[in-house]
Amino acid sequence: MPVAIITGASKGLGRALAEALAARGWDLVLDARTAEVLKETAAALAGHGTRVTALPGDVTDPAHRSELVAAAWQLGGVDLLVNNASALGAEPLSRLEGLPLDGLRRALEVNVVAALGLVQEALPLLRASEAGTVITVSSDAAAEAYETWGGYGASKAALDHLAAVLGEEELRLRVWAVDPGDMATDLYAAAVPDDADPRPQPASVVPAFLRLLDERPASGRYGAPTLLEGR
Q: Buried (b) or exposed (e) across 127-137, using 16+ Cβ within 10 A?
């Protein structure tokens, strides 16, 4: 069975994608910071009959990243790495004039440095896979200027660029930066707590990710809404 590492997998998009992959028979290594929620998620996904390893921890910890890759190796390798774990930098979001610099450092450390660190750790196993794939979860804030989204958007723009360069350097892999579009997630609620407008559930955009895995287009940046429209 193919093996995927998914960070930030206890809820939201990470859990929804893990659920879809488990239903397809993928073995999974799941990461999140909240141990109890991650344990509950893993137990639910194991009901599909696949092997699920849940490792709570912080992706900024190099030892934890090594642990994730070692667990995937024990399952057979790494066919897919999904860098989904994200930090906002400020909760709620704030204008740049008041953005805490420590918060910005945290966003860059989680969204960019840790993501690259996990890629580096997993590269030997990804290269050994017949269909090695890296997915970095992006945001429209990486490409558009929205008031108060400057710190988070800057971190995602940096992640997009790393993904683009990785795609040029690792020609045997597929490297996709995917903008999932608006979703009803805890991250968005923390970012803009006063926004009561209904938003799509994360599961509604998962078919866009599955389409990429099925069709394996060239490495690049993709938007889930466009992928869904083309189904």
A: eebeebbbbbb
CB atoms within 10 A of CB 30: 28
Q: Active-site residue 152, yes or no?
A: yes
Q: Which of 146, 152, 188, 222 is catalytic?
A: 152
- Asked if residue 4 lies in contact with residue 80, where contact means CB atoms within 8 angstroms, the answer is yes
pTM (two decimals): 0.94
Mean pLDDT of 58-69: 98
Residues 64-86 pLDDT 10s: 999 999 999 999 999 999 999 99
Cβ neighbourhood burial of 194 (10 Å; 0-12, 13-18, 19+): exposed
Contact between 205 and 180 under an 8 Å Cβ cutoff? The reply is yes
Strands across the sheet containing 220-223:
52-56, 27-32, 3-6, 80-83, 133-137, 174-179, 220-223
- Residue 192 and residue 19: Cα distance in Å, rounded? 27
Q: Which of 6, 49, 44 is nearest to 24 (CA)?
A: 49
Q: At what angle do helices 101-108 and 150-169 cross, to 10 degrees?
A: 20
Cα separation, 153 vs 193, in Å, equals 18
What residues have CB less than 8 Å from 184, skipping those under 6 apart?
A: 198, 199, 200, 201, 202
> Could you tell me what percent of the chain has a pLDDT over 70?
99
pLDDT for 230: 66
